[in-house]
Amino acid sequence: MRNPDSAGVRPVQSASPDSAGVRPARPATGVRPSRPRRSRTLAAGLVLLALIVLAVAVIPVLSPYDPVAEDIASMLQAPSPAHPFGTDQLGRDILTRVAAAGRIDLMLMMGVEALPFVIGTAAGLVAGFYGGWPDRAITLLSDALIAFPFYLLVAVVAFVTGTGMKGIFLTFLIMGWIIFARTVKGATASLARAEWVESARVMGFSDLSILTRQMLPNVLSQAVTVLMSDMVALLVAIVTLGYLGLGIAPPTPDWGTMIADGQSFLATRWWVSTLPGCAVVLVGVALALIGDGLNDVRREA
After folding, report:
1. What is the spatial distance between Cα 19 and Cα 267, in angstroms, rounded to a whole number?
2. Sign of dihedral through CA atoms 67, 73, 78, 83?
């Protein structure tokens, strides 16, 4: 059985059930815990992500070009002061389209992750805390969904709902909660066997109070770390769906669609596909740095 102190959870003080919640006791050694040093990796990731968000928010507003308006006279122009990222096969400014597509893809990525994160975290808390049939039910459901090929499910949902944001949202809602549920379930199960949990129950604290006031804060950092890495995978999936024609429908800008549109010109007009691809890589790097930084801070806490 894992020691509660090593898991970041300390035994509760003697208190009445009417108190505000279960509060961990202070260390008996009289030595204040060292403050975690700031993670440079986390700071770098946050700064890079902030710059990307600023760029995708500001460039479409300030740009004189319409991201969907065609200009055949300007087609396939190389990067220049007038068009810093060049133009595509329909004469559209690629910098404006990359920024407009980033706004859409990033909003979709964050919106799609939000509900599965909440559902998976709640399911993992319940399964890890109670075990028994809740654990078995969630495990069986997650195993069944994982066994189903992801892109086949995407194709089925796209056939039913059509391409676009709705199909992507439904697909990731069905599949996205699993990784959070499994991560939180394992962390909660190790904490649920701690002596302070039984002490809190004896003193009259409800299971809901223990779950929300003590369990959740202790496992949330692990779930957020997983969230960062899962957002990278989700972004790659969104871009892949756009590349395959199962994502956001043209003429709405999308990084995956832009990469697919420029692959025919890759040998001679490299900027059409390469620069949207670089945008995807930058966002992935930023999210990966944030995830690594959060993991460092959690270990030092």
Report:
1. 69
2. negative
Residue 3 has pLDDT above 50, yes or no: no
Closest CA to 95 of 73, 79, 75: 79
Supply 253's token pair. Answer: 């800008």
pTM comes to 0.76
**Side chain identity, residue 288:** A
Give the list of residues 6+ apart from residue 63 with CB closer than 8 angstroms, or none. 93, 95, 96, 99
Q: Which of 221, 141, 140 is nearest to 175 (CA)?
A: 141
72 vs 65, 76, 89, 95, CA distance in Å? 14, 9, 8, 17
pLDDT confidence tier of residue 65, bands split at 50, 70 and 90 = very high
Neighbours of 254 (CB within 10 A): 27
> Do residues 222 and 172 touch, judged by C-beta distance below 8 A?
no
Q: How far apart are CA 260 and CA 264, in angstroms?
A: 8
CB atoms within 10 A of CB 198: 11
Give the pLDDT confidence score for residue 297 in this predicted structure: 78
Give the integer Cα–Cα distance in Å for 182 and 187: 9
